[in-house]
Amino acid sequence: MAKLARSLLDASTLCAIASFSGRQAHVNTAYFAWADDFRLIWLSEPGAKHSRNVRDNGSVAIAVFDSHQTWGTSDRGVQLFGSARELKGKQAEAAERAYAKRFPDYRREDNSAYAFYSLRPRRLKLFDERILGTGVFVTARVAADGGLSWERTEVYRATS
Fold this sequence. Notes:
It is a single chain. This protein has one domain (about 1-155): Roll (Pnp Oxidase, Chain A). Helix content is about 20%, strand content about 45%. It is built from 4 helices and 8 strands; from the N terminus they run αβββαββαβαββ. It has a 6-stranded antiparallel beta barrel with strand order 1-2-3-6-5-4. A hairpin with a 2-residue loop joins strand 1 (about 15-20) and strand 2 (about 25-35). The protein is globular, with a radius of gyration of 16 Å. The chain starts with a helix and ends in a 5-residue tail after the last strand.
């Protein structure tokens, strides 16, 4: 599962971040980096709606998928669910190193109005039709050290 999850995170540099405030949902796209323990890191303006939502309620879901996939062929992606927060101090510095490693053109001076954020996933949901089969979703619990343990498998099939 961990190998598959890593390959899915490598498949795209963009993610969709879902947050909410009260009863209002919000989604934002962002470039992201990730760590071995499956933490996702992104850069955002602290005054943006999704950044304010994270401050108010850290419950976040993120979807990562290759947007070049074609309907009707084998699809793949990963969804991560957990707690997000703005990073400060040494954690922000470590996040910046990870981000700059994935995006070599990143320059702090060009992004000084932005802050780093991180999602610590508690669960992730894997979807890779080539490997898992059509309509198969595998959910895994994520340990603090990034270890994965199977939680459940869902299979969605057309009824005839």
